[in-house]
């Protein structure tokens, strides 16, 4: 058991190191930060001096090594674009992304399970079929388009909801939250739907097919034969057995909600780390790109590690 | 502080109708820093012009006018310029403005980490004569020196020293990155990078107040469609820019309009003058002036402007727009569109069947840049020049051009001094360390190289113009670049807001009135 955990952690660290190496090898193809940092009247010496001081003349593995060395001491470097410590910038921006991910994840889970059960129980009903057809649109339309459509409908035409931003935020400790103000909560609605729609349809379809599967099982028939109420059969017996795979998938999808927030954040000018990353790519802000990619990969690797360890905890066969 | 109370107060503030005097505007780019000497780019300098001031400033029509200096005159024998400073000016924190601040700001802005130090290349020293007189000494006569320092912003030496911000905050963060203390009509109230920056009028400003806003909030909105939506929904009073393809639709709508103007940036085609071969290994035809002229006569600029720019831009004949100082009015003609003449020129140059080459182009730097390049490719194909378009993001573009990996390329140039001498220095002078730094094609003309320092130091206006005319004529004759058009300025403005659009794309808050 201990050796298994140790092995998994070792593997995770290895994955992280490789991700970092690949990331640094890619940065040179993103472009040259010097051009975006200097004005048009720069001299050739200015360019050279800046390249030297940023260490851009070093081979990428040397740059990576230096980055790792500093990162281990908690120093993620200085953003080329903002001239401020990257750790500080990320700490400022992370709450926005995490709150958006939490709300859209909850939305996807609740709506997904609810609609999944509904469409499974009423599988021949008109509304269930309409929901299934609509969910196809949810899966096939790109996030970008859904976001713009929602903005034009609810912000421009109806003027119910804001088209961009986070509304007013309140600082709680070092965490800026939009949960405590009216405008902050209102601002969450459109981006959460945009970000969660795909996950919602995924969960809905998963719950539906699992539910249909379970409903055919013998114990459900016995339950019916015993004369249990429909509600008890559907929600106490069937749904519980449906949820096992749903929880696994949801856990893994949580990572991708945070990672795929990039597009939603860009459309809604949501000031999270995704928007920060897009800015960083355009500006060739290497320290920010490196920190973001490492953050996301730590998160993915971490979630996978936890899931693996949970399997061990749940399944006794893996412990031997 | 009671957080719940704050939250309630904020909610109440939002529920109340927005005060008309609060002005909200959005642009695609957030000013990277509040340090006026760290980054020489339009978003930064334009924004900070509302907070900091220079000795001189530009008026609505770009003319130089008095600001922190009330008068200036050249010193005898071209030794430099004497500036008489305005008395009774205070910085936002209440400190008095004196000659010492000018000297400090010179030292700061000309230091190695500064991105605006090229403005001070001809300056040898700044001498404080008395509290309100400063001599700026130059190594050679500098007739347009006041024009070149319109964006040189004065910082309080005491404030900088007290907050440890005497150095320029570029590779490091210091107090000036997020804070500002200028003398201008607006003071920085709060700054959240990439999120929101709030300005309020400075009560102690020396000038006459023309605006009526009590608070100005800037939000960067990167996505064009989102910005347009925010304008249409009334959440934002002004956006810059409006995408050209959306301008007509916005104008057709209620409550908003599009303010159209012409920027100072000239979009042009550049050539590999000194390459032996093209990227594909064939001999380089672009070293022949007849081929370059054929390009000029084959590209239908009017058609590009009508279709791609939707009638918003103006054709260009020189490297600077007609409104700039030193423009050669006698040479304001483009080579006529004439595909037959272009084919004849190609045949004469030895390419009767045309040739293949690569056109390098950005896809995220200028307005509709990639579409313009595609149109150029189609037009050149009609006379036999078959171009392969290589369009990419600007972050990769300049390194490729510097490395010489191009045959023909798209370039936009905005003259920082608003003077015809500016592009000569960077685009036409033989490529070197400080001059000709953007002359990627390697054009070299000893006569022009000799004229540039003479133009820079000529006091007499007509003699100066004569030299500028000569270089402009040579550049047209040699077809060093093929100027295409001057980029348009498109701002989306809510009805009831009146403002001034300046050709340098600076948005000046003190000219804004809100109904």
UniProtKB/TrEMBL annotation, chain A:
Q: Name one GO cellular component term.
A: plasma membrane
User: Domain ABC transmembrane type-1: where?
Assistant: 94-311
Print the keywords alphabetically: Cell membrane, Membrane, Transmembrane, Transmembrane helix, Transport
User: SUPFAM superfamilies, alphabetically?
Assistant: MetI-like
* Cellular compartment(s): Cell membrane
Q: Answer yes or no on keyword Electron transport.
A: no
Q: Which Pfam families does this entry report, sorted A to Z? A: BPD_transp_1 (PF00528), BPD_transp_1_N (PF19300)
Please tell me whether the keyword Cell membrane is annotated for this protein: yes
Biological process per Gene Ontology, one example term = transmembrane transport
Instruction: Name the residues that span the membrane.
Output: 12-30, 100-121, 133-155, 175-198, 243-270, 290-314
> What is the recorded membrane topology of this protein?
Multi-pass membrane protein
The main location is membrane
Which family does this protein fall into? Belongs to the binding-protein-dependent transport system permease family.
Q: What protein name applies here?
A: Peptide/nickel transport system permease protein
Taxonomy of origin reads: Bacteria, Pseudomonadati, Pseudomonadota, Alphaproteobacteria, Rhodobacterales
Automatic annotation (TrEMBL), chain B:
This protein's source sits in the domain of life called: Bacteria
Record's subcellular location = Periplasm
* InterPro entries per the UniProt record, alphabetical: Peptide/Ni-bd, SBP_5, SBP_5_dom
User: Carries keyword Signal?
Assistant: yes
Q: What is its main location?
A: periplasm
- Annotated Solute-binding protein family domain residues: 64-432
Matching entries from Pfam families are given as: SBP_bac_5
Q: Which CDD domains does the UniProt entry name for this protein? A: PBP2_NikA_DppA_OppA_like_2
Gene3D superfamilies (alphabetical): Dipeptide-binding Protein, Domain 3, Periplasmic binding protein-like II
One GO BP:
peptide transport
Q: Which GO terms describe its cellular component?
A: ATP-binding cassette (ABC) transporter complex; outer membrane-bounded periplasmic space
Q: Name one GO molecular function term.
A: peptide transmembrane transporter activity
Q: Where is the signal peptide?
A: 1-20
Keywords from UniProt, A to Z, are: Signal, Transport
The similarity annotation says:
Belongs to the bacterial solute-binding protein 5 family.
Recorded protein name is Peptide/nickel transport system substrate-binding protein
């Amino acid at each position: 058991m201990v050796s298994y955990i140790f092995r998994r952690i070792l593997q995770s660290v290895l994955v992280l190191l490789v991700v970092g190496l690949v990331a640094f090898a890619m940065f040179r193809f993103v472009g040259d930060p010097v051009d975006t940092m200097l004005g048009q009247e720069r001299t050739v010496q200015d360019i050279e001096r800046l390249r030297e001081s940023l260490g851009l003349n070093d081979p990428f593995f040397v740059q990576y090594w230096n980055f790792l060395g500093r990162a281990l001491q908690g120093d993620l470097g200085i953003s080329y674009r903002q001239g401020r410590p990257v750790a500080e910038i990320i700490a400022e921006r992370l709450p926005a992304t995490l709150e958006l991910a939490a709300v859209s994840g909850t939305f996807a889970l609740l709506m997904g399970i609810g609609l999944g059960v509904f469409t499974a129980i009423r599988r021949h009903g008109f509304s269930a079929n309409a929901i299934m057809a609509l969910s196809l649109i949810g899966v096939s339309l790109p996030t970008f388009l859904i976001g713009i459509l929602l903005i034009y409908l609810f912000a421009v035409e109806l003027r119910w909801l804001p088209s961009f931003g986070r509304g007013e935020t309140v600082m709680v400790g070092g965490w800026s939250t939009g949960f405590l103000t009216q405008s902050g909560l209102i601002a969450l609605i459109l981006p959460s739907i945009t970000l969660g729609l795909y996950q919602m349809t995924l969960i809905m379809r998963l719950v539906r097919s699992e539910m249909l599967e379970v409903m055919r099982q013998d114990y459900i028939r016995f339950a019916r034969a015993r004369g249990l109420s429909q509600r008890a059969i559907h929600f106490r017996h069937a749904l519980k057995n449906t949820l096992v795979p749903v929880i696994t998938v949801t856990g893994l999808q949580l990572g991708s909600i945070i990672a795929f927030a990039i597009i939603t954040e860009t459309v809604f000018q949501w000031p999270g780390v995704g928007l920060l990353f897009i800015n960083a790519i355009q500006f060739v802000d290497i320290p920010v790109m490196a920190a973001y990619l490492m953050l996301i990969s730590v998160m993915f690797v971490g979630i996978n590690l936890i899931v693996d360890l949970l399997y061990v905890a749940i399944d006794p066969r893996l412990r031997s | 502080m009671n957080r719940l109370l704050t939250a309630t107060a904020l909610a109440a503030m939002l529920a109340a109708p927005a005060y008309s005097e609060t002005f909200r505007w959005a642009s695609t780019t957030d000013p990277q820093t509040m340090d006026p000497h760290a980054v020489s780019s339009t978003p930064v300098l334009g924004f900070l012009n509302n907070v900091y001031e220079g000795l001189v400033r530009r008026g609505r029509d770009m003319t130089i006018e008095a600001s922190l200096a009330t008068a200036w005159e050249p010193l005898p024998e071209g030794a430099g310029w004497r500036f008489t400073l305005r008395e009774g000016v205070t910085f936002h924190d209440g400190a008095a403005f004196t000659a010492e601040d000018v000297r400090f700001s010179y030292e700061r802005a000309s230091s190695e980490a500064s991105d605006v130090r090229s403005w001070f290349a001809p300056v040898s020293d700044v001498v404080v004569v008395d509290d309100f007189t400063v001599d700026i000494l130059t190594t050679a006569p500098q007739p347009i020196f006041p024009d070149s320092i319109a964006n040189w912003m004065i910082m309080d030496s005491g404030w900088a020293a007290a907050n440890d911000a005497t150095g320029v905050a570029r590779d490091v963060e210091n107090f000036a990155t997020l804070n500002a203390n200028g003398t201008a009509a607006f003071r920085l109230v709060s700054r959240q990078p990439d999120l929101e920056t709030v300005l309020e009028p400075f009560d102690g400003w020396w000038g006459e107040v023309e605006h009526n806003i009590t608070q100005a909030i800037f939000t960067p909105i990167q996505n064009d469609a989102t910005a347009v939506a925010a304008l249409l929904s009334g959440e934002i009073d002004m956006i810059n820019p409006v995408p050209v393809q959306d301008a007509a639709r916005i104008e057709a709508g209620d409550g908003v309009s599009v303010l159209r103007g012409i920027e100072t940036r000239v979009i042009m085609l550049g050539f590999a003058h000194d390459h032996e071969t093209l990227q594909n290994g064939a001999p380089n035809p672009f070293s022949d002036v007849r081929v370059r002229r054929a390009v000029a006569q084959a590209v239908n600029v009017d058609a590009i402007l009508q279709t791609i720019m939707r009638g918003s831009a103006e054709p260009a004949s020189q490297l600077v727009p007609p409104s700039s100082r030193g423009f050669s009015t006698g040479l304001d003609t483009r080579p006529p569109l004439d595909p037959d003449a272009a084919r004849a020129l190609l045949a004469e140059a030895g390419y009767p069947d045309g040739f293949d080459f690569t056109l390098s182009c950005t896809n995220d730097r200028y307005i509709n840049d990639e579409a313009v390049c595609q149109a150029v490719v189609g037009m050149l194909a009609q006379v036999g020049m078959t171009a392969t378009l290589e369009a990419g993001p600007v972050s990769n573009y300049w390194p490729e051009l510097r490395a010489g990996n191009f045959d023909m390329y798209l370039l936009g140039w905005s003259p920082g001094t608003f003077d015809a001498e500016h592009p000569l220095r960077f685009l036409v002078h033989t490529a070197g360390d400080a001059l000709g730094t953007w002359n990627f094609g390697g054009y070299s003309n000893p006569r022009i190289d000799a004229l540039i320092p003479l133009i820079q130091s000529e006091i007499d206006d007509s003699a100066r113009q004569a030299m500028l005319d000569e270089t402009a004529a040579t550049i047209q004759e040699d077809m060093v670049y093929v100027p295409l058009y001057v980029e348009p300025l498109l701002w989306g403005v809510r009805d009831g807001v009146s403002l001034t659009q300046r050709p340098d794309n600076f948005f000046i808050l003190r000219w804004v009135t809100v109904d």
